[in-house]
Design a protein that fits this description.
Structural class: alpha+beta
CATH architecture: 2-Layer Sandwich
Distance between the termini: 7 Å
Radius of gyration: 18 Å
Number of helices: 5
Number of strands: 17
CATH class: Alpha Beta
Shape: globular
Largest sheet: 10 strands, mixed
Strand content: 25-35%
CATH superfamily: Pseudouridine synthase
Low-confidence stretches: 1-35
Mean pLDDT: 81
CATH topology: Pseudouridine synthase
Length: about 280
């Protein structure tokens, strides 16, 4: 439990209703845990909130055949099949997203909400479009930040140098899109910073790009971070979607917190013992 920048108090619904339903083999990640637990943090008649493991794709990309979160959703909640809107690739191929309104990068762990029916999907999509869904991320960054908090207002676009990347500034190719991120430092130690990010826009790789812009890339981020490994590296990107909050159709606020993965928590304990500002 902790305070948000608006002074509200949040608690973890997950501590009451968290359940482990399924294990799946996940390939193609680095590292690639052979068995991954998918945990349900919250569920009602309209919404399902899960704790996505790092290394697991949310949905297919038209190229890889590795298991995805959508595969698990269709197995455990087959009623969500065809809820929502498919992703249409440039070649016209349609990728089913079955209930997904938002996504997390493959390397990011944490909380992700799923709509269980079309009415709930349309409602949650509207909330995202109106920026009425609050998402909080926790990240371990390379370097000890000078400032305690701030706002990053830097538009994001495609990089002219690498088609996989997003960027800010003069190296943007094509259209740039508004991107706003609030941040505050929770702890510093051993050449690292533990930082809370609250994005007000939802651009691809937004937190990773804004962290790099500040000069403190996400620990273990092979795309935007430092090339040389740190002794604190966990073998993947140290970015965790910590919490999601929104008001449902009945006017009740749903706030769900995802517990940290074991490897992430190990770095927190070893690098920031006695320094965490919760």
């Amino acid at each position: 439990m902790f305070d948000s920048p608006r002074g509200e108090r949040f608690c973890a619904v997950s501590s009451v209703v968290e359940q482990c339903f399924y294990t799946a083999k996940v390939g193609g990640s680095n590292p690639s845990p052979r068995i991954v637990e998918i945990k349900i943090l919250y569920e009602d008649e309209d919404f399902l909130v899960v704790n996505k493991p790092a290394g697991l794709m949310v949905h297919g990309d038209g190229r890889s055949s590795e298991p995805t979160l959508v595969d698990w959703l269709l197995r455990e909640r087959p009623e969500i099949k065809d809820v929502g809107e498919p992703l249409v690739l440039t070649n016209g191929q349609k990728i089913g997203r079955h209930g997904l309104v938002h996504r997390l990068d493959k390397g990011t762990s944490g909380v992700l909400a799923v709509a269980k029916n079309q009415t709930a999907f349309d409602y949650l999509k509207h909330l995202f479009q109106k920026r009425k869904v609050e998402k909080i991320y926790h990240a371990i960054l390379s370097g000890e930040m000078n400032r305690d908090d701030g706002i990053i207002e830097k538009p994001i676009g495609r990089s002219t140098h690498d088609f996989r990347k997003k960027t800010v500034g003069l190296s943007i190719a094509g259209k740039e899109r508004e991107a706003v991120t609030f941040y505050r430092v929770l702890a510093r130690g051993r050449g690292l910073s533990f930082v809370e990010f609250i994005p007000k826009t939802g651009r691809t790789h937004q937190i990773r790009v804004h962290a790099k812009f500040l000069g403190y890339p996400v620990l273990g981020d092979s795309l935007y971070g430092k090339k040389q490994a740190s002794e604190s590296d966990i073998g993947r990107m140290a970015l965790h979607a910590r919490e999601i909050s929104f008001v449902n159709q009945a006017g009740r606020k749903i706030s769900v917190i995802a517990p940290y993965p074991e490897d992430f928590e190990t770095v927190l304990k070893s690098s920031f013992a006695g320094k965490l500002r919760f």
